[in-house]
Write a structure and sequence with these properties.
The protein is of the alpha+beta class. It is built from three helices and three strands. A three-stranded mixed beta sheet has the order 1-3-2, covered by helices on one side. The structure holds zinc ion (ZN). Zinc ion (ZN) binds next to helix 2.
Length: about 130
């Protein structure tokens, strides 16, 4: 095997391994998001319809929660799919707490904190 072929083989092997690791991470994040959502729906339920979706959010925003007049919509930044699963889990819990404390939706005060603790417990100790 020539040096050129050896280098190409090495680069393609690294590329393949990188792609596999990335794919496994995306799978882990998607699974964590689905598990977190299921635990929240089961153990910290909201009376209204809740939609959770991936979206392209503005830079620096990990997640949002909004009421569209008929249902709550939680959006998770699509770029988070390649991060640590715990980041996505925590973002979903954070937004879920906003729904539970919707009257204080724009604040992170004591009521939101109480619901955050409830939602966190629902996921970590279902
Ligand atoms: Zn918030």
């Amino acid at each position: 095997m020539t040096l050129k072929k050896l280098l190409l083989f090495g680069l393609s092997a690294v590329g393949l391994i990188y792609t596999m690791v990335l794919a496994l991470n995306i799978y882990a994040v998607a699974l964590t998001a689905a598990d977190t959502e299921a635990d929240l729906r089961m153990y910290a339920p909201v009376d209204d319809v809740v939609v959770v979706e991936w979206a392209d959010l503005e830079a620096g925003t990990y997640s949002t929660c909004a009421w569209d007049g008929e249902r709550y919509v939680i959006q998770l930044e699509a770029g988070l799919i390649t991060t640590n699963p715990a980041v996505v889990r925590d973002a979903l819990i954070h937004e879920w707490a906003h729904m539970l404390a919707w009257d204080d939706a724009d604040t992170h005060d004591g009521l939101w904190g109480y619901h955050y603790a409830q939602a966190y417990s629902a996921v970590m100790e279902p």
